[in-house]
């Protein structure tokens, strides 16, 4: 169900719930009301009592612009002796609030409280002394689930740009060695299929999309298996080995980040054909999460692993140049309709297995990590600048460096045995048996489990800052 229609449906369901509240408090429960002010819904649990101030009762996490469901002690009474909550609703008090309900804000009304409310309502369903109230609670439970569906589906699509951290198979048809559409890559992917993802299973773009409630797999835009029905929920344009510097992409024969904009333009045209509504296309792109990972290969390969740039730049001036290219790239995306940007910093590049093997796998390379930190700070500043200069857009910086570094330095804390790669490197020429015990899959790419270890913070930041 599309988000707009889902919001409308939830709004209509809520209005029906209010009607039943009116009905239950005026007819079916009339005899009960002779003995008590309203039909009783027993919500037990001291923690609920502790969390809410009954005088203003921020029970539904609503403000004055939403639904003032219960505002005073005369509408809700607390029996302090048994820690039970009596939710007593006056239809006449609710009526004025419901008339001003803004459906687009409904999904914001339930956050942490949703699961607790639903659990307590259902657990006490059979203790209620009013048939209409029981029916009301079932509908209220459905409404809470409806709200949750909207919350997890507030972003209609995901659009991924950049490098192998996000690439889901765009290199498969290219004449390049930067490919992963062969075994043992994809060993833990559904049906053990090597799709061109640089890992043992799903990559970060897939997991972020799932975490945001969009979909479980993000198809590569250049995939032969791309379905037109996949377009409205987003695709991946990223190319493993690519970078902001055209030299980075050219030496590996992959899709330069700036050229990914050409694919994006082609995507917009195909999306228009699929949706058939220019306004809807604009809405999808404006509300899609634009996930960007670019700079890893520029710093790790082009600057530190080759001498091509060191004759002209030092790390400060080269990262300045990268930021200039990144600024132009993001501005172009904005000009094409994108409005919600999640910009990833680089990984701790000096701690990747390919870098550590240069020191005999003894230490991370400090000078490479230093370069990554310089660049990441400039990316974070760039995000702030965009936020200030383009107020109708939303921009957030995702710290990949420190989150993954903690996993590398403390593998057992996250359920890993080692930070060494499982496969495809000088250190591990024969693939390991259990990729779940390794932080890295190969010489440069985290395992799916490692991505999942840092995923909660990423999803939380995107949900809170871009919604």
From TrEMBL:
GO BP terms in the entry: lipid metabolic process
Signal peptide: 1-28
Record key words, sorted: Signal
CDD domains to which the protein is assigned, alphabetical: SGNH_plant_lipase_like
Domain of life: Eukaryota
UniProt xrefs under InterPro entries: GDSL, GDSL_lipolytic_enzyme, Lipase_GDSL_AS, SGNH_hydro_sf, SGNH_plant_lipase-like
Coiled coil: none
Gene Ontology MF term list: lipase activity
GO cellular component terms attached to this protein's record: extracellular region
Family: Belongs to the 'GDSL' lipolytic enzyme family.
Name of the protein: BnaAnng14660D protein
Organism placement in taxonomy: Eukaryota, Viridiplantae, Streptophyta, Embryophyta, Tracheophyta
Encoding gene per record: BnaAnng14660D
